[in-house]
Design goal:
The chain is an alpha+beta fold. The chain folds into 2 domains: 81 residues, Double Stranded RNA Binding Domain, CATH 3.30.160; 87 residues, Arc Repressor Mutant, subunit A. It has a 3-stranded antiparallel β-sheet, with helices on both faces. The longest helix has 18 residues. The N and C termini lie far apart (32 Å).
Length: 202
């Protein structure tokens, strides 16, 4: 069965959907909570997994910890989202590898589409990486906002606000890194830059 949770963050109401296998989908705040929940339901439908929302099954114990991690991230705390289990049923092996590679991008840093493609042994698949990022069902958990093109430009983002939100999230992380340059999470993929200017568009 699938369940869902909403939670308050510094940016507004976020929402996640989950199963016994892990997180099914996550959404950042929209202008209203109703819009946020509609966006979550749309992502869940796109996954085409068995079950329905909401569920009366007990909430897995990891859900609360996942929510704390995402709330901290939105406050500029350099957390690592790789502790959050993902329900990857129905996704190709390529997309799973790409999403795991993206989760290794350190807080406040960036990787290019080409770099992620090479981590999946598909050096010429940068466009496929772009499509995977644009259809990422777990914004923040899989930090697609940290993925840029080879020139450092921002492209498609699967969360409300689009590129403005992507730039704003990078700015939150850049400011946090500038305030605390000794980041113990600084490990993982090779990166290409720092944060950008912007404010959240909602």
């Amino acid at each position: 069965m699938l369940g869902q949770r909403t939670f308050d963050s510094p940016l507004g109401t976020c929402a996640v959907a989950y199963s016994e296998h892990g997180l099914v989908a996550a959404v950042l705040p929209s202008q209203t909570q109703a819009t946020t929940l509609r966006a979550l339901a749309s992502l869940v439908r796109a996954r085409k997994l068995p079950g329905a929302l909401p569920s009366d099954e007990p909430e897995p114990t990891w859900v609360e910890a996942a929510i704390r991690t995402l709330s901290d991230l939105l406050m500029g705390v350099p957390v690592d989202t790789r502790s959050i289990p993902l329900d990857t049923r129905g996704l190709s092996d390529f997309r799973v590898r790409i999403y795991e590679a993206a989760r290794a991008i350190p807080f406040g840093e960036r990787a290019t589409y080409g770099e992620l493609a090479r981590t999946a042994d598909k050096a010429t698949a940068a466009r496929a990486v772009g499509r995977a990022m644009a259809t990422n069902p777990w914004p923040l958990v899989v930090p697609c906002h940290r993925v840029v093109d080879s020139a450092g430009a921002l492209h498609g983002f699967s969360a409300p606000g689009g590129l403005k939100t992507k730039a704003a999230l990078l700015d939150i992380e850049a400011r946090a890194r500038a305030a605390s340059p000794c980041d113990p999470q600084k490990k993982g993929a090779k990166m290409t830059g720092s944060g950008s200017q912007g404010s959240l568009p909602f």
